[in-house]
Specification:
Number of helices: 18
Number of domains: 3
Largest sheet: 9 strands, antiparallel
CATH architecture of the largest domain: 3-Layer(aba) Sandwich
CATH superfamily of the largest domain: DD-peptidase/beta-lactamase superfamily
Number of strands: 23
Strand order of the largest sheet: 18-17-16-15-23-22-21-20-19
Helix content: 25-40%
CATH topology of the largest domain: Beta-lactamase
Shape: globular
Strand content: 15-25%
Structural class: alpha+beta
Length: about 675
């Protein structure tokens, strides 16, 4: 059975998890205290002892102590040597086992993607894989559906610009608490291979399935299991003696315990598929030092060469950029937290799995590599310890030289940027861009309201100094935007659709309906009407909710309910059930075309809110609600998630009309109101 906390962390919330609680960082190797700031350091990294003092001070800062991380490892290499390899806190809180950089294993999560990309480029060097080749050539009898006129190439896989309709595992598809339930890599690809629905190369969307397919292609062209390939062609040559794509009985005892909310330890889990190219590697700090040394030394370490120097440079060169000054991705590497680069060349890769957080940064021109990992999921805010360390390191050793000059534009010129921008990966992340009364471009999203300072025709800085960049379409119109609301995806400017014929500007639900219409969540009828007063079915309501979240449906060979087979929204119902948003009936049916009641809709939304960390609230509700829906209805009222159909009486009490069928306009109001929390 799936753990609801894992489903929440790994599927519903790729960007934000609310209300996480932590316990103190347990200082096994340094007593926790608030330390004075380290003395000023001349630009550049010059003294290993000073570096260790800087690192110790960082982990003793109140801001980090309050995050209450159980244990961490920090490794820094420079000029071919390991300058720092140190553990902080505990790999196992209960047994007080300290983090040991030599022996403690951490799940690397998505840093695995760098190793996978290296394996692809090894085959490119040998002529077995061509970057510009249609990937169908390497898939054997597995059929890839491509709904565009542009071939999907290996280069598109490496740059996460595939145009796939699904870039992540389906709910319940990644984490398996029973290892026997995990699929082989080939079976996983056969079952879950997504379709290409957007022109490949058009846009950057962080893509786990792209990296999965890279590993499968290497397995196909080499004729050996992917785990064996990595062992023979990467881990052994580099002397990474504790690193593996598999967690086995031999190395399980050295794996750091995973912790989540309130430092609750997680039971051991497996990653699906068993040999997971996008996130399966476990490694130690010292082994990661060897990997970084090889990457910084032209692909060579202690006489072993994993790639040619020119191939390493190619991998670390930006390949997809929304703006020349704001790169996103190379081959396996990504470019994040641009505001902290301080004029330096920086490439990196981060990783997250339940109970594990990691990041690797490389400064190739300075010959410096940094690896930080800890055994806790940290998604309580948008600034985690990995980002904080990187920014502190850069500001201390490579401070910024100055601010770029303004690029003045008149308010009328800025209006071309106005509109709604919807994140391509996380559908509920929406940014509204507009010119304020002061003539300055402003962006509003889940991070709040930010005034934007223009420094280039298509580039702005927000109030934190982070870039907000725009990209034009083929006709010169503004098409995409990038901001720190989601650092691993672009947002698409949503066109303003023609209004529905039966929803004019004065309609009481116009604002709700038109918003969802512009985000392409709701569609009208062939005659241009919306039928706002008509009831909405259970299946259609589920489809709207999933579309708002950005969760695509998928057709399972073993559907949850008997009566959804062949239904046009069967995939959405399957995904919603996997995500613990809906259940069926005792008979094993779902009744997808049955009209949904207001209390049934409330239960679905409250299940979602609870997974997002919303706390239960009380409110006066006067109508008769079934016991199984009472908490959900009360929270709909408490959070004011309704439209004009609900009017509090003189005492503030509300008749939610729980058992009445929900109409399409009321469903639009409900989804609109919950979206305003983001």
């Amino acid at each position: 059975m799936q753990n609801p906390r894992i489903v929440r962390q790994m599927f519903l919330l790729p960007v934000l998890i609310f209300a996480l609680l932590f316990i103190p960082l347990a200082g096994a190797n340094a007593a926790p205290q608030e330390a004075d700031s380290p003395p000023p350091q001349p630009p550049g990294l010059a003294d290993p002892e000073e570096l260790e003092a800087f690192a110790d001070h960082f982990f003793q800062k109140r801001e980090i102590m309050e995050k209450q991380i159980p244990g961490a490892v920090l490794v820094i290499v420079k000029d071919g040597d390991v300058w720092l390899a140190k553990g902080y806190g505990y790999a196992d809180l209960e047994n007080r086992v300290p983090v040991d950089p030599e022996n403690t294993l951490f799940r690397l999560a998505s840093i695995t993607k760098v190793f996978t990309a290296v394996s692809v480029m090894q085959q490119v060097e040998q002529g077995k894989i061509a970057l510009d080749q249609d990937v169908r050539r390497y898939l054997g009898d597995i059929r890839l559906e491509n709904k565009t006129n542009t071939p999907l190439t290996v280069e598109h896989l490496l740059t996460h610009s595939t145009g796939f309709d699904r870039v992540d595992s389906p709910p319940g598809g990644l984490i398996k608490f029973d290892p026997e339930e995990a699929d082989s890599l080939e079976d996983y690809v056969r079952t879950y291979l997504p379709a290409v629905v957007r022109k490949p190369g058009e846009a950057y969307i962080y893509d786990n399935n792209a990296s999965m397919l890279q590993g499968y292609i290497v397995q196909r062209v080499t004729g050996m299991p992917f785990s064996q390939y990595l062992e023979e062609h990467l881990f052994k040559p580099l002397g990474m003696k504790h690193t593996s794509l598999l967690v086995t009985e031999e190395n399980l005892g050295r794996l750091a315990t995973a912790y989540v909310d309130q430092n609750v330890p997680l039971p051991f889990y497996s990653i699906n598929p068993v040999e997971n190219p996008q996130g399966g590697i476990v490694s130690t700090g010292s082994d990661m030092a060897r990997f970084m040394l090889a990457l910084l030394n032209g692909g060579t370490l202690d006489g072993a060469q994993i790639l040619k120097p020119e191939t390493i440079r190619t991998m670390q060169t930006p390949k997809r950029s929304i703006h020349p000054k704001v790169p996103q991705i190379g081959y396996g590497f990504e470019f994040a937290f641009h505001e902290a680069f301080n004029g330096q060349s920086v490439v990196g890769k981060g990783g997250d799995l339940p109970g594990y957080s990691s990041w690797m940064y490389l400064l190739p021109e300075q010959n410096i590599g940094i690896f930080i990992a800890y055994n806790k999921t940290e998604n309580d805010d948008m600034t985690d310890a990995r980002e904080l360390f990187f920014k502190a390191f850069m500001n201390h050793y490579f401070p910024a030289a100055g601010q770029p000059a303004d690029y003045p534009s008149e308010a009328e010129q800025l209006k071309r940027f106005e509109g709604l921008y919807r994140d391509l990966r996380v559908g509920y992340v929406v940014t509204r861009v507009y010119v304020g009364d002061d003539g300055q471009l402003t962006a509003e999203n889940m991070l709040g309201r930010q005034k934007l300072r223009q420094i280039d025709p298509l580039l702005f800085l927000d109030e934190e100094g982070a870039p907000v960049a725009f990209k034009e379409g083929e006709s010169g119109e503004i098409r995409y935007m990038y901001s720190r609301a989601n650092i691993v995806s672009w947002s698409e400017k949503m066109p303003e659709p023609a209004p529905f014929r039966d929803v004019d500007a004065q309609h009481p639900y116009a604002a709700y309906i038109n918003y969802l219409h512009q985000l392409q969540i709701v569609q009208g009828n062939a005659d241009g009407t919306f039928a706002p007063d008509q009831p909405i079915t259970r299946a259609e309501f589920i489809a709207w909710v999933l579309d708002w979240l950005g969760i695509p449906g998928y057709n399972s060979p073993a559907p949850w309910f008997r009566d959804i087979a062949g239904h046009p929204l069967a995939g959405e119902i399957q995904a919603a059930t996997d995500a613990l948003l809906v259940t069926g009936t005792p008979s094993g049916d779902f009744h997808p075309d049955q009209v949904i009641t207001r209390q049934e809709a409330a239960v679905i939304i409250w299940r979602l809110m609870a997974q997002l960390g919303f706390q239960p609230m009380e409110a006066p509700v006067t109508d008769e609600t079934d016991e199984w829906a009472a908490e959900a209805v009360m929270n709909m009222v408490a959070y004011e998630l309704y439209g004009p159909e609900v009017q509090p009486d003189a005492s503030g009490a509300v008749d939610y009309q729980s058992k009445r069928p929900m109409t399409r306009q009321e469903a639009a109001a409900l989804i609109y109101q919950i979206s305003m929390f983001f």
